[in-house]
Amino acid sequence: MNSTRLLRLATDLIVIFLGLFSLTSPFFFTQARDIDNQAAAFPIMVSLIILLCLMIVIFEAQTSLLDSKMIAFLAVLTAINAGLRFLENAIPGPGGFSPIFFLIILSGYYFGSRIGFLVGAMTLLVSAIITGGIGPWLPGQMITAGWVGQSAIILTFLVDKFAWRGKPVEIILLSGFGGLWGILYGVIMNLWFWPFLGAGAGQTFSHTAGALENLQRYVAYYLATSLVWDITRTVGNILIISIMTTSVLKVFQRFKQRFSFQIQG
User: Fold this and answer.
1) Which of 31, 85, 197, 213 is 20 to 30 A away from residue 67, measured at CA?
2) For residues 142-170, average pLDDT
3) For residue 116, what is the enclosing H or E element?
4) Cα–Cα distance, 215 to 11 (Å, whole number)
């Protein structure tokens, strides 16, 4: 394994570690006095994630993945998606519906895992600044949205392996993937505040309970409070990806052909 691949692997591991830390830290700060400690850690976590994004850009700019044109296109994708999230806040849709996930998924699917991560994480950061949605939830949102784009590389592997590109099964896979993340995004994002809640009986986090019991408590909480909300996000993702995939991928293909650079996962 050459140094470039090692550095990419290290970057991916850092992404996973930061994400897990930002999302599981509430389980270690569940006392009332520790809520202030978690709030104090918020700017540190956001700064680390932004630094990570800059590291990815700087590192990949030395390879064939990112050049000045791709960096500009990345900024355009982020701006478009942040604008969509602004509209989502200005004109709320039903439940957890959000129009931002299809571009994050398609970016990761077509341009690779690191571009997908950057589009996801930076979309949430820029949109939070625009809409005033900056708070202790932001690190988890940035990392989780980044994971959405990063994980789309799995579909790239499957589609290329079985020569499904341009076939109906490609859109079916992407739509199903978007639907799955419609649920997963809500499941993951609840973790940042669930340990602090005084929810109904059998739905709160307990230090004295084992991991399995706490998992059962979380499932009960999620089913009672979030499932219907997240189903609307799932349905929205499936519909938007089903409708927009062909057109958006054509735009990506034209950009790739016009500016002629090599895509790496």
Assistant:
1) 85
2) 94
3) helix 113-131
4) 30
